[in-house]
Amino acid sequence: MPEEKSQVQQEIVWGRNSVLALIEEAPNRVKKILVAKGAHHQSIRRIQEACRACGIPLQQVDRLTIERNCPGVSHQGVVALISPAELHDVAELVRFLPDNSKPGLVLLLDHLQDPGNLGSVLRSAEAFGASAVVIPKRRAALPTGTVLKASAGAAARIPIVTSSNLLSALDRLEPEGFWSVAMDPQATEPLDGRPLPARMALVVGSEGFGISRPVENRCDERRKIPMGGASGSLNAAVAASIAMYVWKRAIDKAGGAP
Question: How much is the pTM?
Fold first, then answer.
């Protein structure tokens, strides 16, 4: 039975590049663009042209109005009011996967909390060829304006799938030939030890608590990133990016780039 669809509350996206990327990639989500009076940067002109082409309302307002909409951030004189973002249900996950004969990468984030980390992960996931990113419906960062900006627009392009728990997503990936790999600094097997699976479900834990025990137990294997120093572990976004890069490099060498 499909899980109910999740939505993010109405959000605001700020910054010239993020707003332009949103208009170009998902114009149907944009309700209105607010531009500060006197803003004449070349990117602002491109935003104005894109709004005319897509039929998106654009309003020039004073900077105080911009500040009220997104206080304390570097908005660069432009914000986009966006409709609630529909997140794909876990029942739809299979349709984003490549054919069984091809390599594939799906990233599963176990209650990642920080929006900046989520944005960075989404940006890397797109860069390294992930087919989808799976996040929990509750107690986790969702694709807000902060996430879209940190992802350089990738949050509007890569499929983001929500599930009541990651076990449900893993259950759907296994019949499609995916082998689940949990990133765990306490694992004995290094990330670049044995070859990573061509169809990989990469599981990364939260910033403070790592991967939950039920999810970790469900994974087919655990890998670690060998490292020195005294910190003991890497930032979740950094660890995920390194793991995806190692997978992508191996797939490219094998001549099977997704």
Answer: 0.72
